[in-house]
Design goal:
- By secondary structure, the protein is α+β, with helices and mostly antiparallel strands.
- It is 31% helix and 28% strand.
- Strands 1-5-4-3-2 form a 5-stranded mixed β-sheet.
- A hairpin with a 4-residue loop joins strand 4 and strand 5.
- The longest helix is centred in the first third of the chain and has 13 residues.
- It is globular.
């Protein structure tokens, strides 16, 4: 998958309070980059805890579910857009299916 944009993840993990997210986010990025998903069900096979929500959105649990990562996926084009990364508390403040509409 082509992922837009890794810099969003880097900005997050370089913040002092989120440094523990660096390795889990790097691992997620490497796995997603190598993936060739064609449907949400294919993602679910690899990530059993991923939440499939509306508007082509997926929610990944990062660092033992300490953080939430929302992505929008365009399976036809093999593209993934990072919409949000934050703590559970921050995640609870957003509408996952609407954030960063593409």
């Amino acid at each position: 998958m082509r992922i837009f944009s890794k810099s969003t993840l880097i900005k997050f993990w370089t913040k002092k309070e989120y440094r523990d997210s660096e390795e889990p986010l790097k691992s997620w990025y490497d796995e997603a980059f190598k993936a060739n998903w064609s449907s949400p069900n294919e993602v679910k096979k690899q990530y059993r805890n991923v939440s499939i929500i509306g508007n082509e959105r997926l929610v990944f649990n990062i660092a033992g579910n300490k953080y939430r990562l929302i992505v929008a996926v365009k399976y036809k084009y093999k593209r993934m857009f990072i919409c949000f990364i934050g703590t559970h508390k921050q995640y609870d403040q957003v509408k996952a299916e609407e954030i960063w509409d593409i």
